[in-house]
Design a protein that fits this description.
54% of the residues lie in helices and 0% in strands. It has helices at 21-29, 49-70, 87-91, 97-110, 117-141, 160-163, 169-181, 186-199, 204-214, 220-231, 248-254, 275-291, 298-305, 309-324. The structure holds flavin-adenine dinucleotide and iron/sulfur cluster.
Length: 329
C-alpha cells in the first residue's frame, strides 16, 4: 500500500454529469429534509444500468492497474484516486457483484502484461471478501446489532461533521468532500472520520446516523456493519479483531493532509499539537480494560504502560479539552 505522490497519473473521473434540476425540485416540493451540497446541473453518478456498466468498464480499463497499490492513499487534490465508485451501482442493484468481478477478471486476462495480479486480488477481495462478509454479519446479527455499544461510548458527534467547518485538515477534506460528492473512499471513512469519532468516544448511534445520511452508497446492511462493526468496534469484535484507531502518524504516512494543517502531526500536547495524538493515547488509556484479553492490542497497551504519569496527565487534559470543545479545533 503506497502514498500517492503525484504519479502515476490519475485518469479524470468518468464524466456522466447530468442535469437533475427537475428531480431536485420534486424533492424540495415534497418537503424532504436533505443534507450536503449538490450541483444540480452536474450530477455525476450513474442512474441506469447502462451508465453503471460504463463506470465499471472505465474502472477496468483505466484504474484497475493501480488500484491495489494506492487504495489506502489520502490526498488533498485527489478525491477518487484509483477507486472504482461502483458501490452505489451495486447496492442499488443496477449491476451485480458477480458482474463486477467477472469484468475485472476479463480485463486482467486480456491485459496480463499491464495489470499485475496483486492489483486484481486487492480489488476482488473487497467485494468477494468484505462486501459478502458484511452481508452475512448483517443477516446473522440483526436486529440486536443495531443497538450494540461494546465500548460504552456516550459522546455526541461534533457539529462540524455536518458542516465541514474544522481546522483539522484531514477531517475538513474528508467531511467537505463527503458533503459535496456523497462519497469518500474507504480509508477516509475508516481512518479519518471513523477514527476521530471512535477516539472521541462518540455514541455509535450518532456515528451511524451520519454515515447513513451522508453517502450515496449507504444502505443499512452495508453501512451499519462497516460503521458499528469495522469502524467503531461497537460489536466487540464480530467484524474486526481490533479497533481501527491511529494517531497522526498513520495519516501522515498515507497522505499529504498533515503538511497543510494548522496542527503539528508530531506533537502530542501543547496548543498546536495534532488532536489525534492525545486522543489516541487517551482512548487506549480509557478503554484498556476492554482490550486486556485481545492479543492484537498487546503492543499498543505495552507502549501505553511505558508512559509516565505526568505525560499521561497532560495527554488526558488535552484530550478532555478536545472532547469537550470539538468545534474549537
Ligand atoms: C465507516 C464506514 C462506512 C461505510 N459505509 C458504507 C456504505 O454505506 N455502503 C457501502 O457500500 N460501503 C461502505 N463502506 C465500505 C467502503 O468504504 C465503500 O464500499 C467504498 O468506499 C465505496 O467506494 P468505491 O466503490 O469507489 O470502492 P472501491 O475502493 O473501488 O472498492 C470496490 C468495492 O469493494 C466493496 N467494498 C470495499 N470495502 C468494503 C467494505 N468494508 N464493506 C463492504 N464493501 C466493501 C464496495 O462494494 C466497493 O464498491 C464503509 C466503510 C467504512 C469504514
Ligand atoms: S496534523 Fe493531525 S489534524 Fe492535521 S491533518 Fe494531520 S492528522 Fe489531521
Amino acid at each position: 500500500r503506497k502514498k500517492w505522490k503525484g504519479s502515476p497519473a490519475i485518469p479524470p473521473e468518468y464524466d456522466l454529469r447530468k442535469d437533475v434540476r427537475k428531480i431536485i425540485a420534486e424533492i424540495d416540493k415534497a418537503g424532504i429534509k436533505t443534507i450536503g451540497k449538490i450541483d444540480p446541473q452536474a450530477f455525476n453518478w450513474p442512474i441506469s444500468r447502462k451508465e453503471s456498466l460504463e463506470v465499471l468498464n472505465y474502472f477496468a480499463e483505466n484504474l484497475l492497474q493501480h488500484f491495489g497499490d494506492y487504495q489506502d492513499a489520502l490526498h488533498t487534490e485527489q478525491r477518487f484516486l484509483f477507486h472504482s465508485r461502483v458501490s452505489f451501482a451495486m447496492n442499488s442493484k443496477m449491476i451485480s457483484p458477480k458482474e463486477v468481478i467477472d469484468r475485472v477478471l476479463e480485463e486482467y486476462r486480456k491485459e496480463k502484461a499491464e495489470i499485475d495480479i496483486s492489483q486484481v486480488e486487492g480489488f476482488v477481495r473487497q467485494i468477494l471478501g468484505w462486501r459478502e462478509f458484511m452481508r452475512g454479519v448483517y443477516w446473522r446479527e440483526m436486529p440486536e446489532y443495531k443497538s450494540k455499544n461494546a465500548l460504552d461510548n456516550q459522546n455526541k458527534l461534533p457539529d462540524f461533521y455536518w458542516t465541514g467547518d474544522t481546522k483539522m485538515n484531514c477531517l475538513s477534506h474528508a467531511i467537505n468532500q463527503s458533503l459535496e460528492e456523497a462519497y469518500a473512499h474507504h480509508i477516509q471513512r475508516l481512518m479519518i472520520t471513523g477514527n476521530y469519532a471512535l477516539l472521541t468516544q462518540t455514541h455509535p448511534d450518532e456515528v451511524d446516523a451520519w454515515y447513513l445520511g451522508v453517502y450515496i452508497d449507504a444502505i443499512e446492511w452495508v453501512e451499519i456493519t462497516n460503521t458499528r462493526g469495522m469502524s467503531q468496534f461497537a460489536d466487540g469484535g464480530i467484524v474486526a479483531t481490533k479497533p481501527y484507531v491511529s494517531s497522526a502518524n498513520y495519516i501522515n504516512k498515507m497522505g499529504n493532509y498533515c503538511s497543510g494543517c494548522t496542527y503539528d502531526h508530531k506533537k502530542k500536547t501543547g496548543g498546536n499539537a495534532c488532536p489525534f495524538n492525545s486522543l489516541y493515547w487517551n482512548f487506549l488509556d480509557a478503554k484498556k480494560e476492554s482490550f486486556n484479553d485481545n492479543p492484537r492490542m498487546g503492543m499498543m497497551l505495552n507502549l501505553l504502560s511505558k508512559k509516565g504519569e505526568e505525560e499521561m496527565e497532560e495527554i488526558r487534559d488535552r484530550a478532555r479539552q478536545i472532547i469537550e470543545n470539538p468545534d474549537q479545533f
